[in-house]
Specification:
By secondary structure, the chain is an alpha/beta fold. It contains 13 helices and 15 strands. The strands form three sheets. A seven-stranded mixed β-sheet has the order 7-6-8-9-10-14-15, sandwiched between helices. Helix 4 (104-120) links the parallel strand 3 (97-100) and strand 4. Helix 2 (41-61) packs parallel to helix 11, helix 3 packs parallel to helix 4 and helix 11 packs across helix 12 (335-342).
């Protein structure tokens, strides 16, 4: 399952990061617990493929020395309880690294369960890599030594996208819509607070939360948006909840601006098509026209050739790359040693240098604000989902711009010698 890269690229120019030999060889299993089935399954399939790709590269190119990684996929069904059942199964099997991607409700349950497991089972600790659950509480009041987040949180993304929105003086009325769970509530709160601070003249004409993954027809919500007179929709929806919202907006000829967090992911580009050109913006940690360098070209083309899908989950590189670097540096797969090595670690990957902030384990990374537009012109070499349309970067935000303070009071175990 190896994707070949040109020698000059050599695993995204990471040779120097993985230079020291490892003391011994070990196969390190990583449990991937997520909504493998259900409405968000296509999104998760793409994510799994991304991790498989980077694990394959890590193993073949010895990112972690002679150690290898193995992904063990477990279906949490998007449910906190099902995910905790799978976490228990993973720990029973001796798996000590866990990846979970989407759903802050699941993440809040996972972080609590990991903390309790580690407290009750000294010497059998587990590290939890959070790829895309972005409730700010996870690295504030709920922060944990055992949890590392590899996506910008809601407040960080909202800081970036509302700064861009505020520049457009034609925007007067904004409708906020999101999913009714932890992330949706935080999204709504942050949107209202930041718009009030940056553009107090903007009127919030609607603030809706809908059931996550359950709405099949968004036309009633779109009717409310039209009736409100909104010129702009601000939404934190993702997966099918965003694709179906966009589809209903198109069917109803709702020609408003859309400012989004997740319009890049599976299904939404197809739902948008030509109708959304120059009207949809998003903020993301990466997109397939973000950086025109050989490493990005190799990954984008190689992934599409192998999986017949667009490459989207750049965070998979950060997780596998930084885990590999920590294992190599410590010459150990011990989760406590690895967690300490990850604190403050810097890593250069597809979007530039990122840093795992020591104080709260929140990754500090560049963010891109991009506009959906016709592909083929300057800055839009790659389209999305064969639509003929793609993302063009408006601005790249360096990590310090969207960075947010933290209230985390980190409690750390004794540092291994």
């Amino acid at each position: 399952m190896t994707i070949q890269f040109r020698p000059l690229v050599l695993a995204f120019s990471m040779t120097a990061a993985f230079a020291a030999p490892s003391a011994s060889a070990e196969n390190i299993k990583i449990a991937y617990i997520d909504a493998v089935t259900g409405p968000f399954a296509p999104l998760i399939k793409n994510s799994i493929n991304s991790f498989e790709m980077f694990i394959d590269q890590a193993n073949k190119q010895k990112w972690a020395g002679n150690n290898t990684f193995e992904l063990v996929v477990m279906d949490g069904k998007g449910s906190p309880q099902e995910s905790l059942n799978q976490l228990k199964s993973a720990t029973d099997q001796g798996i000590r690294y866990v990846i979970h991607q989407v759903g802050s409700g699941v993440a809040l349950a996972m972080i609590d369960a990991v903390n309790k497991h580690n407290q009750r089972n000294p010497g059998k600790e587990v590290v939890y890599f959070n790829g895309a659950a972005i409730d700010p509480d996870l690295t504030n009041s709920k922060c944990s030594f055992w949890h590392f987040r590899f996506d910008a949180n809601t407040d960080m993304k909202m800081e970036g996208i509302t700064s861009e929105l505020a520049k457009d003086k034609s925007i007067k009325k904004v409708y906020v819509i999101g999913q009714n769970y932890a992330h949706g509530h935080q999204f709504s709160k942050a949107a209202k607070e930041m718009l009030q601070r940056k553009r107090p003249d903007i009127e919030i004409v609607g603030d809706d939360l809908h059931p996550i993954g359950q709405v099949k027809d968004f036309s009633p919500y779109v009717a409310k948006i039209k009736a409100s007179g909104a010129d702009t929709v601000l939404t934190g929806n993702w997966g099918t909840d965003l694709s179906l919202l966009v589809k209903s907006a198109k069917d109803a000829s709702l020609n408003t601006n859309f400012y989004t967090f997740y319009a890049f992911f599976d299904g939404t580009p197809t739902a948008m098509g030509a109708n959304a050109a120059d009207r949809v913006k998003m903020i993301a940690y990466w997109h397939n026209n973000a950086e025109a360098n050989p490493a990005n070209v190799e990954v984008i083309n190689g992934f599409k050739k192998k999986y017949k899908l667009d490459f989207e989950w750049m965070g998979a590189e950060s997780i596998i790359g930084m885990l590999s670097k920590a294992v190599k540096e410590t010459k150990s797969s011990d989760p406590t040693k690895v967690a300490y090595a990850l604190e403050g670690m810097k890593f250069k990957g597809l979007s530039g240098e990122v840093e795992m902030r020591k104080t709260d384990h929140q990754l500090q990374e560049p963010l891109y604000i991009a506009t959906w537009t016709k592909a083929g012109g300057p800055g839009v070499k790659n389209d999305s989902e064969n639509t003929g349309y793609g993302w063009k970067t408006d601005v790249k935000l360096e990590p310090f711009i969207a960075s947010q303070p933290t209230s985390c009071q980190m409690k750390r175990p004794a540092k291994p010698k």
